[in-house]
Amino acid sequence: MIANRSSGKQGFALAQVALDLGADVTLVTGPVHLSAPVGAHRIDVTTATEMRDAVLSAIEGTDALLMAAAVADFRPVETVKSKIKRRKGLPEVQLESTDDILGLVTSHSDAPKVVVGFAAESQDMIDNARAKLEEKGLDMIVANDITAADSGFAVDTNRVTLIQADGVIEELPLLSKIEVAEEIMERVVKLLGIGD
Ligand code: CTP
């Protein structure tokens, strides 16, 4: 398999905060070592294709999709059931692209009213994140610099910049992932027009 070090913490924090706000929450997750917040409907997947299918069937009638998953962009063309023997020499692994799940969602007739993406960047964060927001047709993108030690994969804190489709850019300080989720959900509620 091809995987990454994403812990799932930011996605689970979003599920928790959305539940606390009274939302019905479906949590589609890859293999992570976390317990789902009580009240969330958890769907476990192991591949990008399974995640695509789970997300596309869960979005019907939903208000918002928050796509914090670090989905693999490539998968091996061939998978093998038996061990690859060393004596056969160095294998060549050919890759193919996985589907861009967010791209499929935003072009879908059942697209949620608000779609939020994440942008894990290691350079030119704002420009790259803004390009993703436009290409994927998002309402907001949460950009983070994954090269910073206190932000991004596997830690409990995150330093993110929120970029909205209307051009508003907000740089948030170092926060816990729960606090980041609260900031994100506050804006989602406003975008849905259901805040007081
Ligand atoms: N995403 C997705 N499907 C994929 C890959 C990513 O839906 N196959 C989503 C992620 O969940 C995230 C957003 O797209 O919300 C951006 O993901 P990211 O990995 O930062 O960007 P990519 O589109 O994969 O572009 P690149 O890896 O080239 O930066």
Helix-strand blueprint:
Blueprint: H1 9-20, E1 26-29, E2 41-44, H2 48-58, E3 64-67, E4 74-76, E5 95-97, H3 101-106, E6 114-121, H4 125-136, E7 140-145, E8 157-158, E9 160-164, E10 169-171, E11 175-176, H5 177-192
Parallel strand pairs: 1-2, 3-6, 6-7
Antiparallel strand pairs: 4-5, 7-9, 8-11, 9-10
Helix pairs in contact: 1-5
The chain binds cytidine-5'-triphosphate (CTP).
Can you describe this structure?
It is a single chain. The protein is an alpha/beta fold. The chain has one domain (9-76, 91-192): CoaB-like (Rossmann fold). Helices cover 29% and strands 22% of the residues. It contains 5 helices and 11 strands. The protein has helices spanning 9-20, 48-58, 101-106, 125-136, 177-192; strands at 26-29, 41-44, 64-67, 74-76, 95-97, 114-121, 140-145, 157-158, 160-164, 169-171, 175-176. The strands form 4 sheets. Strands 3-6-7-9-10 form a 5-stranded mixed β-sheet. Strands 1-2 form a two-stranded parallel ribbon. A hairpin with a 4-residue loop joins strand 9 and strand 10. Helix 1 (9-20) packs across helix 5 (177-192). The protein is globular, with a radius of gyration of 18 Å. The protein starts with 8 loop residues before the first helix and ends with a helix. Residues 48, 67, 69, 71, 73, 98, 100-102, 117-120, 132 line the site of cytidine-5'-triphosphate.
